[in-house]
Specification:
6% of the residues lie in helices and 43% in strands. By secondary structure, it is mainly beta. The chain has one domain: Glycosyl hydrolase domain, family 43 (Tachylectin-2, Chain A), CATH 2.115.10. Strands 14, 15, 16, 17 and 18 form a 5-stranded antiparallel β-sheet that branches. Strands 1-21-20-19 form a 4-stranded antiparallel β-sheet. Strand 15 and strand 16 form a beta hairpin. It is globular. The two termini are 35 Å apart. The relative contact order is 0.16. The model has no long low-confidence stretch (mean pLDDT 94). The protein binds beta-D-mannopyranose. Beta-D-mannopyranose binds next to loops.
C-alpha cells in the first residue's frame, strides 16, 4: 500500500456558515420495527412534504454497543415522512429489502425525483462484491430495479434532470489493483435509460482534496444553482495512531463532509472546491456516540425557498442529523479561500 499522506490537522474545523440542529433527527427510538442503527438517509422534498429513506440495521442497540459486529447484520431500508424535515413519521414497515442467496444487503439510499417518479440509488453487498443499484418507484412501495453495477462500485447519486439527453450519476468505483489499494475517487457516468451506463469519466481524485488521504465519495444528489451544480461528498483520512474509536474494537478512519461546485453543462468538470472540510465531527453525537465515532456521511441535501440549504448526514453510523447553511455562503466556500 502506498504511504499515507500526513494531513494538516488545523484544516479540520467546521465552516462558520453551518448550523447544526442540536439533536439527532432520527434514531432507532423513532422506528416502530426492529432497529438498532438508523443512518445514511436519502432525503427529498416534494409538494411541501419531506421524504426520507434510511438505512436500518436490525438488532438490539445495547447488544450492538456492547458486542459490535456480533449482533447480527440484517439491513433493510425504512421510509419516513415529515412536515418540517425534522420530526419524522416512520412508516410501520421497511420499504425495501433485496436480501436473497446472492444479495446480503441493500443500503445507503439516495433519493432523486425525476421524470415524475422517485429514483433511489443504493449500495448492494453481494457474495461476489459491492455494487451500486438504481430503482424507480411511483409510490415508494413498489420498486422497479433498473440497474445493478458490476463490483466494486457504490455511493451513486443521480442528478435531478437529464443533461444533453442523458441521465447522469456520480459514483465511486473502488480500484484496488491500480490505485495503491485505497485511493477511491469520484466518477461520473451517463445513461439514456437508467439501465445502460457509460461515457464514464473522472470528476475528482483523492489527491485533489487536501483533507483526505484515503477515499472520497459522492454524498447527496446535486443541487442546481446559477453558478453550477453544488455537491457534498465524504472524505476519509486514516491515522494509524487511532485505535478504538466508537464501539468497534479498532477504527482508524475519520469521515468529514466536503463541498464543491461542478460545471452546469459538463458536471465532470470541478469549477470550485472548498480546500477545507465543510463539516467535521464535533460534539457528543459525532465524536462519542455510535458504532463508528468520527464518521459523518451525507446522503441528502435540499434547497429551501428562502435559499437555505439543508444537509442530512449521519453520525457514528447510528443516527441521522441535519445542518443548514445559506446557499450563497456555500457557493462562496467553493470559490473563495476560507479565512
Ligand atoms: C462507508 C460505508 C457507509 C458507512 C461509512 C462509515 O464505507 O460502509 O455505509 O456509513 O463507511 O462507516
Amino acid at each position: 500500500m502506498a504511504e499515507l499522506k500526513r494531513l494538516d490537522e488545523s484544516l479540520f474545523t467546521t465552516a462558520s456558515c453551518i448550523t447544526r440542529y442540536p439533536e439527532p433527527i432520527l434514531s432507532y427510538k423513532d422506528v416502530p420495527y426492529q432497529s438498532a442503527l438508523t443512518f445514511n438517509a436519502g432525503v427529498m422534498k416534494k409538494d411541501g412534504k419531506y421524504i426520507m429513506i434510511f438505512r436500518n440495521d436490525v438488532g438490539d442497540f445495547e447488544a450492538q454497543r456492547l458486542f459490535p459486529n456480533k449482533s447480527g447484520s440484517i439491513t433493510n431500508l425504512g421510509l419516513a415522512f415529515s412536515d418540517d424535515g425534522i420530526h419524522w413519521d416512520v412508516q410501520p414497515d421497511p420499504c425495501f429489502d433485496l436480501r436473497n442467496d446472492e444479495i446480503i444487503r441493500a443500503y445507503d439510499p439516495r433519493l432523486t425525483w425525476i421524470d415524475d417518479e422517485y429514483c433511489i440509488c443504493f449500495a448492494v453487498d453481494t457474495r461476489h462484491g459491492v455494487c451500486g443499484g438504481m430503482a424507480t418507484s411511483k409510490d415508494l412501495k413498489h420498486f422497479d430495479i433498473k440497474s445493478i453495477s458490476a463490483p466494486d462500485n457504490r455511493n451513486m447519486v443521480l442528478f435531478p434532470e437529464k443533461l444533453n439527453g442523458n441521465y447522469v450519476r456520480l459514483e465511486r468505483p473502488m480500484p484496488v489493483y491500480s490505485r495503491g489499494g485505497h485511493f477511491f475517487d469520484i466518477w461520473l457516468s451517463e445513461s439514456p435509460d437508467l439501465v445502460y451506463w457509460g461515457k464514464s469519466r473522472l470528476v475528482m481524485g483523492t489527491e485533489d482534496v487536501p483533507f483526505c488521504n484515503d477515499k472520497i465519495g459522492p454524498g447527496a444528489p446535486p443541487i442546481k444553482t446559477d453558478k453550477g451544480w453544488l455537491i457534498v461528498f465524504h472524505a476519509v483520512d486514516i491515522d494509524p495512531e487511532r485505535g478504538k474509536n466508537g464501539w468497534e474494537p479498532v477504527w482508524k478512519k475519520r469521515y468529514v463532509i466536503g463541498i464543491a461546485l461542478l460545471d452546469l453543462k459538463d458536471p465532470s468538470k470541478v469549477i470550485g472546491m472548498s480546500k477545507r472540510p465543510l463539516i467535521v465531527p464535533e460534539g457528543f453525537y459525532e465524536r462519542e456516540y455510535g458504532f463508528r465515532a468520527n464518521a459523518l456521511f451525507p446522503c441528502g441535501m435540499l434547497l429551501e425557498e428562502d435559499q437555505t440549504v439543508r444537509i442530512y448526514y449521519s453520525a457514528g453510523d447510528a443516527i441521522v442529523r441535519m445542518a443548514t447553511a445559506k446557499l450563497d455562503d456555500l457557493l462562496a466556500l467553493c470559490t473563495e479561500p476560507r479565512k
